[in-house]
Fold:
Amino acid sequence: MEESIKIPETAEEAVNQEKKDKKASKNDKKLLAEIEELKAKVAETEDKYLRMAAEYDNFRRRSREEKDAIYETALADTVKELLPIIDNLDRAAGFTEGDKILEGLVLIAKTASSIFEKLGVEEYGKVGETFDPNIHNAVFHIDDDAYGEGEIVEVFQKGYKKGKHIVRFAMVKTAN
Structure:
């Protein structure tokens, strides 16, 4: 499409046309400056976004590494606490006398109890306690008026808990 150039017929038209051209030129310059400013803001915002995304990825990686390290350290600390039991079992295996073996097993059980206590693991499920289905597993039930309602009369396997977390449910026989 060919654009026709209009030639001003009077000097006044020529002046008006020149003013319009200058005004249009100023507007074009303002628009170009505004466009450049907006491009700079977009580039800055994009840079901030990319930096934030990179920081978040680094945070996730560090958190995962720290979590793995904490788990490994906790596991190693727990195994370290249990090693005296293994040492005592090895020593007990060397005995041939029944009394010495029994004495060694009693000491090993005491060592295990003290280690669990040190680790914050509680033992539960004793004869005479009241049955609680949240922490006990009743495998037998008897009706006997000599015992109270829901009383534990025999323990087949002790239960253990760490804080509110049940490590193992107690396996018991209940009455009534």
User: Anything to note?
Assistant: The helical segments are 11-93, 98-119. Residues 116 and 122 are 7 Å apart (CA to CA). Residues 123-176 form a domain with the Nucleotide Exchange Factor Grpe; Chain A, domain 2 fold (CATH 2.30.22.10).
